[in-house]
Amino acid sequence: MILSRFRLKRFKRFDDFEIRLRRGLNLLVGPNECGKSTIVEALGISLFVDPGTKSKAVQSLEAWGSSGGMELELEFEHGGTEYVLTKNFGEGRAELKGGGETISDRDAVAHRIAEMVGFGSREAFESVALVRQGELAAFDGQSGKNRRAELVPMIERKMTSSSGRVDAAAVVNDINKEIAALRVGMDRPAKRPGRLKELLDERTDLVKRVADVGQRWGIVLSRRAAHARRRLEWSAAKEELDRLVRIVREQEAVLEITADLERVEEELSRAEATIGRVRQLRSDHADALGEKDSISEADAERVRSAQGELEATERMIVDFRSESTVPEGASRSRTGLLAFITGAIALIGVPVILFLVKGGTQQAIAGAAAAAFAVCAFILFRRFGVLGDYERDLGNLTRERGKRELALQAALMQVGVPSYAEFSRLYEDQDKRWQRAEIARAQLAEVCESQEPETFEQELQTRAVTLGRRRGELNAALAETGGAETALPPAEVVKLRDELESKREHEKTLREALARDEVRLERDEEGESLPDLEARLETVDEETRAIERRLAVMGRASAGLEQALSTTKEEAAEVLAPIVTRVLSRITAGRYAKVTVSRDLAVAVDNPSDRPGAPPNVLQGDLSTGTVDQLYLATRYALLEFLSDVEGAPFILDDVFVNFDPARRIRALELLREFSDDRQVIACMCEDHGAEEPVNLVRLRPI
Hints:
With about 700 residues, the chain is an alpha/beta fold. The protein contains 18 helices and 14 strands. The longest helix has about 100 residues, at about 195-290.
């Protein structure tokens, strides 16, 4: 049988504990009170004790204050098949799974386990396969393999006797003496009663005190229960408070990140817009400045001066014409022609009129007409002279205008435009560009806050890069919180804050009530504690039961030894002697190279060869405590090898190296490694004593 996993639930101090083992040597290392002996005890119970038992001794092993009953689960391998053994003492259920079958009948499970282990009872198993420091175990057995097991208590007792070379009769005597010592005061009063009497008296006192304290403790327990309920309520309130705190913090974080992100986005947008604005203004300013001086001021002044002189000449011509008495459109040629025609008419018409008209009146008319013709002729000739002056002055003005026009064309050609209108348009556009440049410069100064535009733009770009990086960080932080979609509406967040404050007040009220309860419970628990009394009573009962079991074991051992004297002496001597000799010789490095087992089952150690003249056997009283323990260990291993095959029980040792010196302890560990080649070995000890691979080292902590 190879144990691989052992789980204890609600067993003594273990609420839920699991240990893993493997083939070969397993060392369970830990200080006192770490549960090594409890694990060993639980192994025996898991293998042999019926979970349906009503034994108070077994029921007392359940963890104090637990509910549901203790439960033991053992995984092991046997014959190449994996098995799981489960025993639930609360439900009285046993189950063995393995090899494709499940056994649920408790008796069938017990029978199958006994076959696998090789021992029919827990007493037989613990008397052979389990070695405890300073313990003597015995059991009954009447036939078959159990008959051989009757050797166990006899050999164990012989190895721990201090009367020298002992035999079975001495062992029986020692057992009877120990039984009598334990029972002192049971039959009649004694000044110094034995341990059993002391325990029974203490139990009587404890029962009375438990009854006296029980009534008061009922009130304490009621208050404790109320305190426990309030603590549960506070725990739930605290959990809800923590949940709300977490939610509010998450929502506040989302709101804060979102606000920061909006601010950063806004600043980044402003920065990018300002950069674009600065670049546009710089471009406008550069464009305007690049085109500003296409027409120089000197050329423009010449053009404007020539245009002014031309316009002045034209105004003079207009004024001259408006001030002249000569009709519009009149000229010397037209006036001379009119005068010629008038004179001709006068020269021809007067004689004709005089020829046609006869008489005085007619002569008068003719004379008048002749006079009128003469006057008209005079006026026409006078007008002809005025027109000559007019045309002369007008011609002078016209020629002056031509000169001015030539001067204007020359100035326009210097500028490179065909007309004054084109010049005016270009100069006006140039002036507008100059104004745009001034406006752009003023706007740049305003936007750049009087800094150099290039420096200001570089600072803005640096700021934009920083803001972009910050935006990325905020987006990442927002994603970690679940994203903006996880954000609750502000109104919901306000409700959560209000609820959080309410929960805080409720949790505070419960916490203060708990503190008051604890102060009152401390006052209630001043005096004797019922749990402490009950725990002590349980301890006393357990110790009492242990002594009673010990008395029963020793009684059976005494009876068994008497019977074993006549049935197993020769067989034990033949089998045990060479095994014990081999083991003891290895541990003592050959100092004790031979152990003799006589027909009467007396075990003696031969004197070392380096002691000439000494008796052939060493008296047990002359052996050190460590050597006696080593002889005891060798004998127990011999019994196990004799009584159980390699597929049977593991070899279990509980703190057996206490009295070993370092060298013998190391050799003993080496022997255990060798034993573990054929049989699983489980050794409990306080220290690992330098154990190395291939040891499975399991360190235990104090409970």
